[in-house]
Structures are given as structure tokens and as C-alpha cells.
Amino acid sequence: MNLEKLFNPKNIAVIGASRNEKAVGHGILKNLVTGCVYPSEYCQPFSGKIFPVNPNADKILNLKCYQSILDIKQNVDLAIIVVRANLVLDIVNQCVKKGVKAVIIISAGFAEFNAQGRKLQNQIAHVLKKANIPTLGPNCLGIIRPVNNMNASFAPAMPPKGDIAFISQSGALADSIIDWSIENRYGFSAIVSYGNKLMLDVADFLEYFDQDKNTKVIALYIEGISNGKRFMDVAKKVKKPMIALKAGRSKQGIKAISSHTGSLAGNYDIYKAAFKQSNVLIADTVEELFDNAKALANLPKLKGGVGIITNGGGCGVLCADHCSELNVPLVDLKESTLKKLDRSGKMHPAYSRRNPLDIVGDALAKRYEIAIDILLSEKYIGGLIVIQTLQSNTESEEDAKVVIRARKKYPHKPIVCVYMGGRFSQTAIDLLENARVPNYNDLKKAALAMKTLS
């Protein structure tokens, strides 16, 4: 099924657009008109034509309103439906008659609600499938496509542009991620909330984003999969990295899912086995999902063992422990490498002479630069974890610039950082993140990122 008009429409009709600023139909329209309900620096208006549909209004947000989608003279690429559940079937029939190319049903009250809602959902699905109109939802947040300035959802804001596609069965989770992404400048190529999956399921989006030039990594939040065989068949063909967080790992979670999106959650062990066979990495938490997606989007695969460079010995030891627990291979530094470090004349007499390489607390940027360059130049070292603890003489920003230069010099070797601190490290952390060098606020996260890249 062709999803191009769902993700890249030239015009959009909002059926159920509202003058009530507290209504979902108003929020969706405002998101299209301005990019955000809550303004941020990432808000941009949708560049295409917008058609509000409301039989009880002449204008909303200075846009002409239409009594029905059938009154719109132009062809309609995407129709967003946000009306009461009992009205959706009639609206869908009008969309079919109009010949719309794609539909998003925001409305709730279907399979997640009761047996009557499930019956109505099935009726709507029958009409749309017969017309071959790709449909997202119902009971969903919608689609946010930052790369096209399209916020076709009732999310609070537009996230930054990036290269991670987030496919979520939960709209509320996507909302929270958007708020977090703005604070942390974490970019997305798209965010998709697919809800009850009346027609389109996660496999359809895997196929789409595997071909999407704006996407490097696909992150998934999954409650249930309707067609496990198709999911596995599609996932095995996907060339881009995929990482998933599966909800419903306990009996209580499984029960909760049925009343959330009407899905059949299934046994978590079965999902884990299916993910493993389909090359889908597994995350245990929301934070882990996006930490590891960031590493996959920005860094090459790890080929070989890992070196750790730190100006704090205890932090190096803790990081080594985490690497050992996660089976991240740490290299033994060769004597020839140590001789290169000695000859530099910049190493402290008490430096550790082993991996983790503790270059001691008084290390300035030049010592970091020499240590990083020498280790990355060795063929037997596949990547680095660079740790910085903030001390009175630490040159945080210069240290960050050293790492950025090394990332450019050794593009085939991953570097992850742990700049430990807060306010006084933030400028350096911003430099790293803007240069697409992942920085983590915890040593275990850095070790896990390397595990993900291996």
C-alpha cells in the first residue's frame, strides 16, 4: 500500500475542526496552521493547503470552513477525522466518495472501548480496505513529520528535525517524548501514533521508513502485533537498524493493553524470540530506547575492542564493570601503544598504563587529544568511551572540540562520551551533541550504546 500521501500530502482536510480552543479538532488545525499548540523554536506551519470541515462554522483560524469534505472543489490528499465515533462511518463513506488518498482517524471509542466499538471499527475497516485507502488509527495521536513541517496530530508541539523515525502504539507516550525531545534537542524524521491499527500496522511503517531517505534508525513502541508472520517477514528485509520497546511483559501489563488499544499482547518471550530472529534490538526502558537509537543514528558499527579514556580512575573502573556485565569487549593496551603515549611527553607519570586509560585528574585538552588520537590510530581498537569528570582545571569545551576532531578523523570508529556533571559541563555537552557525538549522563548508558553498536 502506498503511504506517500499519508506522510507527504500536498493538502489536508480536518473533518471536525473546532472553534473551541480546548477541543482536539482545534488543536489539530492549529498544529497544521502554526506547527505547535505550545510555541517553540521548532514550530513551522504546514506549507500545503488546509481545509477545515465544520458544518457549524464559516471560518476557523482565518481559514474558510466547508460543510462537508464533498464541498471541497480540489482533490484531497489526506483527511483527518476527529468526530464522535458514531459519526465516523458516515464521514468515511464521504471520504471514499471524494476519492481521498489517505485517512487518519483520531477519534476513540472503538475496539479499545467495547464489543460494539469493535464491530463499528470492523465496518469502517471494510469500507476503507475495499476503497484501498491507507488509514491510520483509530484512537491515535496522528503523524508528525518535522522534515516536512507537518504536525498532523494533537501533540503539543513539533519536535526538532532528525533522522530517527518513532513508531508508537501509544499517543500519550509520543506526546511525552516530544516534550522531552524539545528540551534535549533530540531530532526525529517522523513520529507515528497508530493506535488501534484498523488497517496499518507496524510492518507497514517498517516498509515505508526503510525506504525513507530522511530516516536512519527506526524506534518502536509496541503493545501488540496483529500479524506476527508478516512483521517478521518485513523486519528481516529492513536494512536500517531497528530497536523496540515492548509493553505487556507482565500479566498486569497484558490486561492493561486490552483496554488501551484493544490489542492482543501475547507472551513476551515469544516477542523477544521474534525480535531476535528479525534483527530487532530490544530496549528495556523508554530512555534506553532513545539513548540507543541516538547511537545507531550517529555512529558506525563497532568492529573490534573498546578503549576507555578517563580523567577519573573510579569512573573508568565503573565503566569497565558495566562493559564486562554487557559483554562489551575491552582491549588490553599493547606495549607499543604505551610507548607511543610515553613518547608524547604529555602523560602524567602516574597514568594508568592499562585500559581503562586513566590520564589523571589534571589532564588538559592536549593530553586528551594525544590519548584519543593514539588509541584510535591502533587497528586493534575499534572504538572509544571518553569520560570527563569536571575538576578545577578541566577544559571542558576544548576537550569536546578534541573529541569532535577525532570523530572526523576516524569516521569508521564509534566514540561515545560521558561528560559527568551538570551546569558547568553543559556548553561542552551541547558542542558534542550538535556535532552528532552522543553524550550520556551515566556510565552504563555509554557501555550499553557500545553494546548496541557491536
* Poorly predicted regions: 253-265
Structure class = alpha/beta
Termini gap: 34 Å
Helix content: 25-40%
Assess the beta-strand content as a share of residues.
15-25%
Please tell me the overall pLDDT.
93
Per DSSP, the total helix count is: 16
What's the β-strand tally?
Answer: 18
Strand order of the largest sheet: 9-8-11-10-12-13-14
The outline comes out as elongated
CA gyration radius, whole angstroms: 25 Å
Query: How would a crystallographer describe the biggest sheet?
Result: 7 strands, mixed
Question: Could you describe the 3D structure shown?
Answer:
By secondary structure, the chain is α/β, with parallel strands linked by helices. The chain is built from 16 helices and 18 strands. It has helices at residues 4-7, 24-34, 85-98, 115-131, 171-184, 202-211, 228-237, 251-258, 268-277, 286-298, 313-325, 335-343, 365-377, 396-409, 426-434, 443-453, and strands spanning 11-15, 49-53, 59-60, 63-64, 78-81, 102-105, 135-136, 142-145, 150-153, 161-168, 188-193, 217-222, 242-246, 280-283, 305-310, 357-358, 381-389, 415-420. A seven-stranded mixed sheet has the order 9-8-11-10-12-13-14, with helices on both faces. α7 links the parallel β12 (217-222) and β13. The longest helix has 17 residues, at 115-131. The two termini are 34 Å apart.
Q: What is this entry, summarized?
A:
This protein has 454 residues and is an alpha/beta fold.
Comma- or semicolon-separated keywords:
single chain; 454 residues; alpha/beta; seven-stranded mixed β-sheet; five-stranded parallel β-sheet; 16 helices
